[in-house]
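Pasting as-is:
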Amino acid sequence: MASDNKQTKLLRWLLPFICSTVLVAMTPYIMAKTTALGKTASPPPSVELQYIVRVKMTAMSIGGKSTIQWDNKGDQYAIHTSAKANLIGQVLESSSKGHIDAQGLKPDIFREKRIRKDETITEFNRTANTVTFSESQQTIPLEKEVQDRASIVWQLVSMARAAPEKFSPGSKLTQKVIGRKEIDLWHFAVLEEVTLQTALGDIRTIHIERRDNKNKTTEVWLAPEKEWYPVKLIFDDNKNFRLEQSIQTIIPK
């Protein structure tokens, strides 16, 4: 009986110690699991993407080249896009900078210069929760989960990397995107899985399209086997300007 009492006392002393030790050992795993459950975006590694360009303006169709620089600094990001057409020169230059959280990209400043148009600057003031536009000198409230016209593609990439099942053909996605003067709702449709013939060979892609009520279209083809990078993009204003970019080179940073 004395031996049993000693064992019982020993177990009473050891049990809390064992439990606390196990809890301490499991804490990193529990925290990682909790963080993963709350994470809805996974931005890709830094890269330079070089494209072959086809620009259509009115009756002209001109070739050219473009580059997208994507920099993922962990808690911050930077995007710079430059597209040039032969004989014409620069047709598009844009940049977006901001920070990254579990839900993806949070723009701070967006600049865009299109051919025959002045540069526009959009600033996201997250302290005052406002957005200001250089074109209109207007200030509007900053809404949650809003993107600019450069960051939206990379937000889609980040979402697809975190939850590829949401990008199956037939899926619908809606994102708030800052335009030149206001916030718009962009409705995306995941159309199909298609293998593109590119300068890098055949690449399996997911084709996503956004079409607004004026029939302007933004299309992007994301490549799951290549970090979900956009390997083809098309912008068509349904008037007299169409910009198509097809991947030529992927250069990891």
